[in-house]
Amino acid sequence: MEKFFYPQSIVIIGLSGKANNIPRLVLENLLRWGYRGRIFGVNPKIDESNVSGIKMYKEVEDLPEVPDLAVCLIPARFVPESVGKCGAFGIRRMAILSGGFSEFGEEGEKLSSLLVDTARKYKIRFVGPNALATANTANGLCLPFIPTFPPDKGGMSMITQSGGVGLLLWNLLADENVGMAKFVSIGNKLDLDETDFLEYLDEDPETNIICMYLESMSNGRRLIEVAKKARKPIVVYKSNTTSAGARAALSHTASLSSDEDIIDAAFAEAGIIRIHNYGDLVAVAKAFELPPMRGNRIMVMSPAGGFAVIGADLCEKAGFEFAQPGEEFYKSLSTFANAGVIKFSNPLDMGDIYDPHMVTHVTYEVMHSDNVDGAIYIGQKPNMPQGENVFRDMFLTDLSKEVYGSILSSGKPLGVCFFGLSGFLHTVKEYSNYPIFNNPEEMVRALAFQRDWHARKRDNQGAPPGNLYFNREDLRKWIDAHGEVVGEDSLELLSLSGVPVAVSGIAKDEKEAVELANNTGYPLVMKIVSPDALHKTDAGGVILDVKNDDEV
């Protein structure tokens, strides 16, 4: 897997100097990002000796060395042959960006099969096809054919099935001061899939959080098993949840949808954070840029009482406990007050503290209180005579240097959001270099996800079982003895198969029913067992909430 992110040498197949040559965009990205490895170009149809300073060759076999990674972006019908040539030359890793495979109908399916067979023949592992492949901010690797500028380095890595959605999230996260470590667009995932890259990124020392956009899952069981062992938070935006979405995804990346209830339950068991829109994915990624919330006690702060009330409502609905620092703590804050007309409590109305310098001191005291696990600050654009410049020069610089510095020293998360026009928010984010949330709703929701993930890791609860164990010989004997499985027999069969089932039993008269009920425990459900009553409820054969022997 290292060669997909840290190749020492790359060959771009299909490269030419023509203005409309798409592989040339890959080369331009590599040069723009400052990729430090060796680059070669291959194209049998051109006579150019070099393209943008990169030496060109007619065939792969003419290269002076075996590259670590081949990037293939040529018409789909030529891809299997190109893979064969790469394999014969000794190349074992490929990024296939070309489209026109499984997502393109029956002919594309045939090409897909031929591609996979050829790759297996030469033991080639590949990402794609119909993908943007990989990017790595650590070494300047950037294989997408969309012109891209290098983002800030950070701890977020992304796995995406759709290149377009992935690049959108990439840009949105960059705008929110969330830096990137690695990126991979897997496309049709005919070979390597989301779980392969998830497993790799969880071990990657430069990755702190893994964000995923999926339209389908290649192997749900393996994904869950890898996720439950993961040491890093995994945030998944899973689309393709409706019949219309499924039809669109089939033509887009050849994706088949899965049962949503099963996915929700499995993700919850594995500790995967599932979100349902790209805005929440960005917000959760921002929350994990903050220090971990190690408890549930939160402080709500705002210079406006109304915003403090809004924040308190949101925190209570999200299950937070309001921190109680104590009267002495609040008395210490009174020294920062101007008029002394507001009683300090939680939520903390800071409307009596006008000086931004004092705001930094109060925030410092809050964040370092032993009775506070985290805090939120809901601000707004101040109505100052000189407008944004005063706010920027006086407040944001202090906020950046002092308050945000105090967050790091406290080891606790402070969620920050500001109400204001979009241009104002952009100014705040530009000058703060800190994850600023767009509104209180997304901020509290994202912090709750962060809190729950860390709590789960501490408690190590809810891990799903491994492979279900059962004795095939015993199971076969049971099936042979029972023939057709009907009614309550199915519970015994499931139990033999290793599936947990509810405690149950069959009684033929009142005495047996009472004995069985006492062994099982109240309250319980009683229902008829009869081949003539397939729909038990319709037949009046189901009674709920039976509480004692007399009711039995």
Number of strands: 22
Tell me the CATH architecture of the largest domain: 3-Layer(aba) Sandwich
Overall form: flat
Q: Which secondary-structure class do the elements indicate?
A: alpha/beta
Measured distance between first and last alpha carbons: 62 Å
Q: What is the third-level CATH name, the topology of the largest domain?
A: Rossmann fold
**What's the CATH H-level homologous superfamily of the largest domain?**
Succinyl-CoA synthetase domains
Radius of gyration: 30 Å
The domain tally reads 5
CATH hierarchy, class of the largest domain: Alpha Beta
Strand content: 15-25%
Write a structural description:
The chain is of the alpha/beta class. It folds into 5 domains: 1-136, Rossmann fold (3-Layer(aba) Sandwich), CATH 3.40.50; 151-281, Rossmann fold, CATH 3.40.50; 290-459, 3-Layer(aba) Sandwich (Rossmann fold), CATH 3.40.50; 468-497, no CATH class; 502-552, ATP-grasp fold, A domain (Dna Ligase, domain 1, 2-Layer Sandwich), CATH 3.30.1490.20. The protein is 41% helix and 17% strand. The chain has a 7-stranded mixed β-sheet, with helices on both faces. A 7-stranded mixed β-sheet has the order 9-8-11-10-12-13-14, with helices on both faces. Strands 15, 16, 17, 18, 19 and 20 form a 6-stranded parallel β-sheet that branches. α11 runs parallel beside α16 (440-459) and α13 (356-367) packs parallel to α14. The mean pLDDT is 87.
